Amino acid sequence: MSWRVRLKEPITIMNASRSRLTPIRTAVALIIALAAVLVVVTVGLGGAPKPPIATPTPPPTASPTTSPSPVPSTPADPTPSVPADHGPILGDVTIDLDQASRHDVKATVRDDSGDLVDVRSGTAAEGMSVDWGDIAVENLDARTIKVTWVGTGDEETVFIGISADGDGYLVDVVQRGLGPNSDTLGYDREVVLTFDRSVRAADISGGVAETTAP
User: Fold this and answer.
1) What Å distances lie between residue 112 and 4, 22, 96, 152, 170, CA to CA?
2) Can you tell me the distance from the alpha carbon of 152 to that of 98, in angstroms, rounded to the nearest whole number?
3) For the purposes of burial, counting CB atoms within 10 Å of the CB of 82, is it exposed (0-12), middle (13-18) or buried (19 or more)?
4) What is the largest CA-CA distance in the chain?
5) pTM
6) Region class of 206: left (phi > 0), else alpha (psi between -120 and 50), else beta
């Protein structure tokens, strides 16, 4: 026996695009889109404050400094130091010189060597034992020498500088000169120098420099 069921109407299968929910979804999507547009417009019109743009601060400029001007140094005087340069100073020794003319003649001795332990006058003979400008040196003992030169018979102070010179010493005498066209007679002058070590007459050099200063 067969059963047949008769439906009053045929069943229709609806497509999803034709569903009654489609208009609702469309409306929701439209609302969301409009909200997004409103947000963009609001932001674009300055709804949200923009952060301030920081202005870079320039680095501090160091003030230029002026370099100190170099102070020129005074070159060392290559000549031996003699008392005539600046007059007697502390450490100079002044003695009376024996002279046949009997005039008052003194000698100021400056020892730059640091080796001189005694200075005294010799006994000068009459006349001239050496030429003008020269010195004669002889040993009196192992540590003592006698230096002889010629000067005028006038009163004056003679300056003598002693300095080390290799294995020996340099003896410079500075005194008043004769002047031009002078025929003045010269007189021997002698100084005796004692050192704290052995010294040979052959190791002594030097001479006499003349000045017109009184």
Assistant:
1) 155, 124, 21, 27, 10
2) 13
3) buried
4) 191
5) 0.59
6) left
Structure-block tokens of residue 21: 């929910």
pLDDT in tens, 23-63: 445 444 455 555 554 544 444 445 445 555 555 555 555 55
Cα separation of 192 and 15, whole Å?
146
Tokens of 86: 């600046």
What single letter denotes the amino acid at residue 197?
A: R
Q: Which two tokens stand for residue 163?
A: 């300095």
Which amino acid type is present at position 142?
A
* Ranges 83-87, 117-121, 182-186: which has the least confidence: 83-87
Model confidence pLDDT, tens digit, residues 176-192: 887 666 667 789 999 99
- The number of residues making up the chain comes to 214
The mean pLDDT value for 91-118 works out to 91
Where is pLDDT greater, at 166 or 66?
A: 166
Give the phi and the psi of residue 174 in degrees, each rounded to 5. Answer: -120, 125
Mean pLDDT of all residues in 91-101: 89
Mean pLDDT score across all residues of the chain:
73
Neighbour count for residue 109 (Cβ, 10 Å):
22
Instruction: Give the 3-state secondary structure of residue 206.
Output: strand
Tokens 């969301």, located at residue: 32
DSSP 8-state class, residue 18: G
Q: Which of 165, 174, 168, 205 is nearest to 108 (CA)?
A: 174
- % helix, strand, coil for the chain, step of 5: 15, 30, 55
